[in-house]
Amino acid sequence: MEKMHLQCGRMAAVAMEYCTFVDDFNEVENESGKQETWLMTLEKLFPRLHVAVIALVELSDGVRSYHLCDDDQRCEMFLRLNTVLKTDKTLWAKYENGGVRQQTPQELCERMADNLADMYFDLKRGLELAERDPALASSYWQSSFYAHWGKHLLDAECWLHCIDAGGEPPLLPEWQWPNTPERVAGVV
């Protein structure tokens, strides 16, 4: 295995922490302490992921395109996360007491489950690459961030803070990262 650059090692560490969190995210007890734990964990993980991926060295020539993960695995994870999110009665009580809403809790659960699952598979793929080729993993994380999971990360952060405060998260507009065509060629 090639020696891992410091920034790639930091990205690998936070990616592993995120993937472990999602793997262990099986039930939300209705106790406020349990709810606060998962909210605080994500509240701390999301910015760390953002900083770690931005700090990676420039893209190498190793990653030219991005492909979505296996649909069956992603669907299974999405359904599990969606079910768990719907069971958090404390979280949804805040939301439902906030007045007239454009989005239902079900729609919001699906949105967050989609964000969490898509990020998981992109980060997990980078971890698999890091075992063999840290430079390729670094390039993959960065290119997949600009092509795909970056928007999921921003949406998840917005979702988390709005829902926790009893508000309704806005839908993010369609957007593209600056310089994306030059940075990531051939998004599939």
Summary?
This protein is mostly helical. It has one domain (6-183): Four Helix Bundle (Hemerythrin (Met), subunit A), CATH 1.20.120. The chain has helices at residues 6-24, 32-54, 71-86, 89-96, 105-132, 134-164, 180-183.
Report what the structure shows.
The protein has about 190 residues and is mainly α. The protein has one domain (about 5-185): Four Helix Bundle (Hemerythrin (Met), subunit A) (Up-down Bundle), CATH 1.20.120.1550. It contains 7 helices and no strands. α1 packs across α5 and α5 (about 105-130) runs antiparallel to α6 (about 135-165). It is elongated, with a radius of gyration of 17 Å. Residues about 180-188 have low confidence and may be disordered.
N- and C-termini, Cα separation: 29 Å
User: What is the count of helical runs?
Assistant: 7
Q: How many structural domains in the coordinates?
A: 1
Could you report the average pLDDT, rounded to the nearest whole number?
82
Could you list the spans in which at least 5 consecutive residues all have pLDDT below 50? Answer: 181-188
CATH architecture assignment name: Up-down Bundle
Largest sheet: none
- Could you tell me the strand content as a percent range? under 5%
CATH H-level name... which superfamily? Protein of unknown function DUF5063
CATH domain fold name:
Four Helix Bundle (Hemerythrin (Met), subunit A)
Give the total of beta strands: 0
